[in-house]
Write a structure and sequence with these properties.
5-stranded mixed beta sheet, about 90 residues
Length: about 90
């Protein structure tokens, strides 16, 4: 079964993704990277990473964990904010 998830970006943008219930956090991060304005640039893509901010704190993300296990598919889940960071 698929579901739509909405995210905010720090610059005030909105991202909506269609995800499956078995989607992992690693797959979600890849999908969010694809939505970055400079995702087409291979060098930019290599240095970017995605973090999610929820309830004023950075989510600890095990890439193998499903979205359901992470609580992102709960009906009362608050919208997460996407943070694009550069790798050091």
């Amino acid at each position: 079964m698929s579901r739509q998830l909405g995210f905010k970006t720090l610059d005030g943008g909105d991202i909506t993704l269609e995800v499956m219930t078995e989607t992992t956090l690693g797959e979600l991060k890849t999908m969010l990277l694809d939505k970055h304005p400079r995702a087409e640039d291979p060098l930019e893509r290599k240095v970017l990473r995605v973090e999610l901010l929820r309830n004023s704190s950075i989510m600890e993300m095990d890439d193998a964990q499903t979205l359901e296990a992470a609580g992102l598919l709960d009906a009362e889940a608050t919208t997460a904010t996407v943070i694009y960071k550069r790798n050091e």
